[in-house]
Design a protein that fits this description.
56% of the residues lie in helices and 11% in strands. The chain is mainly alpha-helical. The protein has one domain (19-106).
Length: 109
Amino acid sequence: MNRFQKHGPALAPLRRLAPALLFLAVLAAFVPGLGVVSDMTGREQAKSLENTVRQSAVHCYALEGFYPDSLAYLEQHYGLRYDKSRYIVSYETVGSNLMPDIAVIRLQG
């Protein structure tokens, strides 16, 4: 057999598809990781929002001597803003001199 002779046409289509198949394999390996990163980012944003609400309430207590009775008070007087279509903020007051119970729930979507 002549070693300089070209191989049969059976391998030619595979050689043309090899880069595309390699790209798809690499892409398939990274797609599940993107979902994990997105989920972690959402949890961190919710935790950051909870800390921001808590700091705003403490700031109000330090300046005015009481914890606000509603989240709306923090929005109006302390500039608290958040995306209400992505998060639900539970703000439960016990008394004007006790730290309110604050919880942030991230909505899926």
